[in-house]
Amino acid sequence: MMKKSVPLIISSMIVLLLVSTAVFAPWLAPNDPYATNMAMKLQGMSAAYPFGTDHLGRCVLSRLIMGARVSLFTALGVLAVTLVLSMVVGVAAGYLGGIADLVLMRACDILMAIPHFIFALVIVGALGGGVWNMFIAIIIVSWVGYARIIRNMVRGLKESTYVQYAKMTGVPTVKIVKRHILPFVFPQILLLLLIGTGSTVLLISELSFLGLGVTAPMPEWGMMISESKMYLSSNPMLMFVPGAMISLTVLIFDWFGDTLRDAIDPKMK
Amino acid sequence: MLAAIWGVTLVSFFLIRLIPVDPVEAYFAINNLPVTEEAIEEIREEQGLNKPLLFQYGLWLMNAVQLDFGQSFLTKTPVAEELLSRFSVTLGLAAAAFFIVIAISGIIGIWSVVKQGGLVDRFTRALVFATASMPSFWLGFVLVYVVSLKWGILPLMGWGTIEQSVLPAFTLALGYIPYYIRLIRTSMLEEIEKPHIAFARARGVKESIIIRRHVLKGILPALFTSLAMTCGGLLGGAAIIEAVFAIPGVGRYLVESMAARDYAVLQGFILIIGTLYVIFNFLADLLCAIVDPRARLKRGDI
Amino acid sequence: MLEIRDLSVFIQTDNSEKEVVSHVNFTVPQGKIVGIVGESGSGKSMLCNAIMQLFRQNRRYTGDIIYKGTSLLAKSEREMRHLRGKEISLIMQNPMAMFNPIVKIGDHFVETLQSHERISKHHARKRAAEQLARFQLPEDELLDRYPHELSGGMLQRIMIALAACMQPNLLIADEPTTALDTMTQMDILDELLHFHQKTKTSMLIVSHDLGVIAKMADFIAVMRRGVVVEYGPAEWVLAQPAHSYTQALLAARDEHGDLEKLADSWEGTTIGPLYEYKPGCWVREEG
Ligand SMILES: Nc1ncnc2c1ncn2[C@@H]1O[C@H](COP(=O)(O)OP(=O)(O)OP(=O)(O)O)[C@@H](O)[C@H]1O
Ligand SMILES: [Mg+2]
């Protein structure tokens, strides 16, 4: 047991580090991420600008650090809202069945017919860009799948002998759900959501890359890549660095999810 | 299948229309036109937006069946023509990537099983981890930088020639290749464990026949189902890759239309994608039924 | 012809090894039937697989298996493949799982024939049909059927026909009648006996049912927990069991031996309508 939790401790510390970077970004950033300085544009590395400057003379490192905010806050926000939304609907549909179940399953069928990315793209397109709309779009796209997983889990649990027994002995529904359903479903879904956080971060960067997520001048990694594409041959670092940040973030969350899963239930796969 | 496609038309139409943004007002706002009651009414009249929603849906559906997706707000030209012509580019890119995925992951996956390569397994596991974390557009730029700028082998950007399509198609494919290597490898190994393979060996059946007739055929249903999903993913991914390589496909058109809130384009686009997706899945089911006789009993609805 | 010498089989898992067959000795003489009887989990199937040299990657052997004077353990995988199905054939336990559900019955025959000799698909199919006919199976109906469309008993018969299609010298039958109803069991055993009498093929028959072994075997080996506890000519083992486990097996058999005799003696074919021979009980008239 002790040996197994070592990777988990390390990975959660790294996640914590990442999150605190985002939280304390304004104080960590060496320069003002918004301050343009055309005289200093497209500079290489220096003491004042450790990762150089972009085409408007803004500090790349500062923008990277501030960029962590958008990605992480949005991704974690999506996680929280999706968790609540899918739990409520999934448990209702799975336990009560009836109309709630029917609506959820039909919604699943239809939403599954459109690839996630395209679906998010179109919703953002219809709503208009911006962080807020992107946030809404990603939630709309992702919650249904989780709700369906919960619904199936709850259905299985409902059939189990101990829930049947509780029902027979007249335990009120609310209590059964609280006692026997939620404690089982909740950690599993949280785990799935954590594992899915990496792909949320990717989705955010993809939408922003297309100019549909974050609006300028707010720093965001995907958009930084998009802005730097004109300078690919002269200043490739401008493009490499934010991409590496995205990869790193996704990797960290994937790894965290993996170690957490191993620690909770080594058999689950 | 028809029911599913009908479901897609519902989503395409109502999803866009139910979004609480008035497309006409948005249009004016974005194009910096003076917002007057008459002007708005005029556009509404022109686009048939003042009729009841259900009536609009019926009208739209009738036209959509005849491949008429209405007029663009922006250019006042028919959407269908533009959309379909650009879509063919995207489809070409996605198809090229699709074949690259199948070819490369098929060869490596099968090879790793036949040669019992634990090394390949570890390598692809790492590769899955890595490629799953890298944004495809970034990967595209890195490849452009290395292959085109540094080595000067392939053209930078654009679309039309074979050389121009290599990098984008490969970039698009790269994200899926490790996944498919693993899928092929693990499902083949799973298949090999089955008792009927042991019986085939006990009859002295040649290893090449076992691999071809039993193992590879056995993994086809799982592969088809997965590939159908991937087709949709590739189309979506193509939209991003187009932005990297300046390919005049539907992705760019879509982004431009979004900036202008050209909802007719969005509706038409979702309809096409959704319909294709349903068709892909139907084809996958069909192919599964051809391979696996047991699947024939359950399916068969159109 | 086949000689098992002090054979032990170890199954290797990730970090441990388990002995499932322990120091087994017996021989299968040319043209004879040897029966192995033993409870579930006693290592019978492991022994059969060891003779076929299946699952080599995660098995370790000590002792030796001598077939026609040469050691099977020393043979390469290539050499073993040529022996399997052609010289030594195995009918495996659980016929329902042994056919590939997405491959037609006929193709199972074709691939077997084509693996051992140069033969066109057309000819192979003809041979398959002949082979099925030899076992009184409706060949033209079966060749293009899929395994899931057939009953367990039918698949068991086909499996025997398939295993015998290259005229092997040694036929190993691992539980050929388990999971079948009593009447089908009888039929299948009769078919195997018939086949043996016609071709003089040596056989190794495995079962947990002493009745089956008693009916078929010239020699009997009794296995328990990986060890052969008794081995000898059938008459001796059945008449004067030396080991207490064999005695227990025999005692258990005698309790329902009467039923089997009754079933054995029944030879008629059924014709005519059902009639009620006493209130509530129905039976068909015999011809
Ligand atoms: N893959 C395996 N890994 C570890 N142990 C195994 C494995 N397969 C079988 N065994 C063990 O080997 C022993 C012998 O199994 P075997 O299948 O030979 O029994 P059997 O006599 O054929 O029984 P049955 O009548 O049920 O077919 C059993 O105790 C079983 O637990
Ligand atoms: Mg067995």
Account of the protein in words:
Chain A contains ten helices and no strands. Chain A starts with a helix and ends in a 5-residue tail after the last helix. The mean pLDDT of chain A is 83. Chain B is flat, with a radius of gyration of 24 Å. Chain B has a domain of 193 residues: MetI-like fold. Chain C has a domain of 146 residues: P-loop containing nucleotide triphosphate hydrolases (Rossmann fold, 3-Layer(aba) Sandwich), CATH 3.40.50.300. Chain C has a six-stranded mixed beta sheet with strand order 6-7-8-3-9-10, with helices on both faces. Chain C has a four-stranded antiparallel beta sheet with strand order 2-1-4-5, covered by helices on one side. The C terminus of chain C is likely disordered. Chains A and B meet through helix 4, helix 5, helix 8, helix 9 and helix 10 of A and helix 1, helix 6, helix 7, helix 11 and helix 12 of B. The site of magnesium ion has 5 residues of chain C, from helix 1. Magnesium ion binds next to helix 1 of chain C.
Summarize the SSE layout with pairings.
The complex is a heterotrimer of chains A (269), B (302) and C (287).
Chain A: H1 2-23, H2 25-28, H3 60-96, H4 98-111, H5 116-127, H6 131-159, H7 161-168, H8 173-209, H9 221-227, H10 237-264
Chain B: H1 2-18, H2 23-30, H3 37-47, H4 53-65, H5 79-114, H6 118-133, H7 136-150, H8 162-174, H9 177-192, H10 195-202, H11 207-245, H12 250-259, H13 263-291, H14 293-298
Helix pairs in contact in B: 1-13, 5-8, 5-9, 5-11, 6-9, 7-8, 7-11, 8-11, 9-11, 11-12, 11-13
Chain C: E1 2-12, E2 17-28, E3 33-38, H1 44-52, E4 59-67, E5 70-71, H2 77-83, E6 88-91, H3 95-98, H4 105-116, H5 121-134, H6 139-142, H7 152-163, E7 170-174, H8 182-199, E8 202-207, H9 210-216, E9 219-224, E10 227-233, H10 234-239, H11 244-265, E11 270-278, E12 281-286
Parallel strand pairs in C: 3-8, 3-9, 6-7, 7-8
Antiparallel strand pairs in C: 1-2, 1-4, 4-5, 9-10, 11-12
Bound molecules: adenosine-5'-triphosphate (ATP) and magnesium ion (MG).
Adenosine-5'-triphosphate binds at residues 11, 13, 18, 20, 38, 40-46, 93, 175, 208 of chain C.
Brief rundown of the structure:
Chain A has 269 residues and is an all-alpha fold. Chain A is 74% helix and 0% strand. In chain A, helix 3 (60-96) packs across helix 4.
